[in-house]
Amino acid sequence: MAEINMVPFIDITLILLIIFMVMSPLLVQMQLTVDLPRSQSVNTQAEDDVIRIEVEKNGKITVQNKQLTLKNLERELILKMGKANKKTILVQADKDVPIQQVVSVFDVAKKLGAAKLGIGVLSKN
């Protein structure tokens, strides 16, 4: 009776598994390019509950038409949020802004206890 020799098949399978295990961290570290969409809808939430933060590609941060740096952002958000932490923070970033700057803004907002965090898109004009 002839039997199939499974050893070469198992060897090839294990080699492929090792190759995929080595390559997967390299694939995860690749930069993700995102082209942000533009919205045509109207904002339905009350404007007094929303704090808009705009992040420009040159590093400038604007909180409701007041330009700041990342260092001054926490102080300004404390003033804008007041004692009621039921405010929504909407971050609108240029599509060329590194994601780390947006994450830093989210970190500051979350540290201050914002009720909701959101990412906004620029409206078509």
Features:
125 residues; alpha/beta; Nucleotidyltransferase, domain 5; 38% helix
In short:
This protein has helices spanning 7-28, 70-81, 99-111; strands at residues 50-55, 61-63, 66-68, 88-93, 116-120. The protein is an alpha/beta fold. It has a domain at 47-120: 2-Layer Sandwich (Nucleotidyltransferase, domain 5).
Mean pLDDT: 80
- Biggest beta sheet summary: 5 strands, mixed
Write down the secondary-structure element order. HEEEHEHE
**Structural class estimated from helices and strands:** alpha/beta
Give structural notes.
It is a single chain. By secondary structure, the protein is an alpha/beta fold. It has 3 helices and 5 strands. The chain has a domain at 47-120: Nucleotidyltransferase, domain 5. It has helices at 7-28, 70-81, 99-111, and strands at residues 50-55, 61-63, 66-68, 88-93, 116-120. The protein has a 5-stranded mixed beta sheet with strand order 3-2-1-4-5, covered by helices on one side. It is elongated, with a radius of gyration of 24 Å. The model has no long low-confidence stretch (mean pLDDT 80).
Strand and helix map with partners:
Layout: H1 7-28, E1 50-55, E2 61-63, E3 66-68, H2 70-81, E4 88-93, H3 99-111, E5 116-120
Parallel strand pairs: 1-4, 4-5
Antiparallel strand pairs: 1-2, 2-3
